[in-house]
Amino acid sequence: MEILVGKETRAYLRKKGLPDHDLYELPESKLRFPDGAQYRIEIPTVNSAETMRAALETAEKYGVVINRITETLGIMRHTDEELEEFIQLAKDYKVELILSVGPRATYDLSTQRATNTPEAGRVGYRLRGMEQVIRAVEDVKRAVHLGCRGILVYDEGLLWLLNEMRKDGELPKDVKFKLSAHCGHGNPVSFKVLEMLGADSINPVRDLTLPMIAAIRQAVSVPIDVHVDNPASTGGMIRTYEAPEMVRIGAPIHLKTGNSALVTHGLPTTKAEGVNMAKQAVLVARTVKKYYPEAVQSGKGAEGLAIPK
Known about the structure:
Blueprint: H1 7-15, E1 39-43, H2 49-61, E2 68-70, H3 80-93, E3 96-100, H4 111-114, H5 118-121, H6 129-146, E4 150-153, H7 156-167, E5 176-179, H8 188-197, E6 201-202, H9 210-219, E7 224-227, H10 243-250, E8 253-256, H11 271-291
Parallel strand pairs: 1-2, 1-8, 2-3, 3-4, 4-5, 5-6, 7-8
Helix pairs in contact: 2-3, 2-11, 8-9, 9-10, 10-11
């Protein structure tokens, strides 16, 4: 494949071990999770224990394994009792639980963020000022103290700090950090930096093509968390039939599915929404099994899952 623009730049990228183009050839990834699996199924925006229970019960009824549940409302928005219910469900179902950092620009005094303009979106869910960084760390410590071992991070600086704390023993060594799609990253070079900062899995922006996903996989070894479907507020894409190819080119990969059942992200969720999110996960799981039957999914309680202590 020959591309005319940027030949010298592409040669330099190859020297640095980076892909020199989006990989339209869609090479198969040979990387795997610690248990040897290629993919795991994640249901994000599970923002109440009621929703989590409904989603897991529904998936189990259909014979589908959910490997990861991600909460996005924010640790500080839940009582200890609510967090303990999340954690107990994760233990009971042997599923990875990711709880999200609560302090963020959307909850802060940021007038820029409150305008809902394109400029406001650049702040995203990041942190404003050192006090909010400290509060974010306290939010993480609270979740970890209760037993959670998976944290969703929205700020690259906080990711670096939490990784330093993990290395220095200020946080347990088995805590894992997932970087959110709300950070807005979508290229191999950015993913390389995020991996260096300590991310254990990284969620790109939601609208990447398959060649773009394939190129990212060539740059990093950590799992990629790819949205298979989304609510209308972030594009409304439902890419169920692309899921088998996502697994083939993106392994190890989390197939993030179920959010097409929601209106938007980051709101409290209900039992009924949990059922509908699980049904979408069932559709994705069955599509992968039909078109890529040799693909291996992690089972319950698999090696490397951040199951609460």
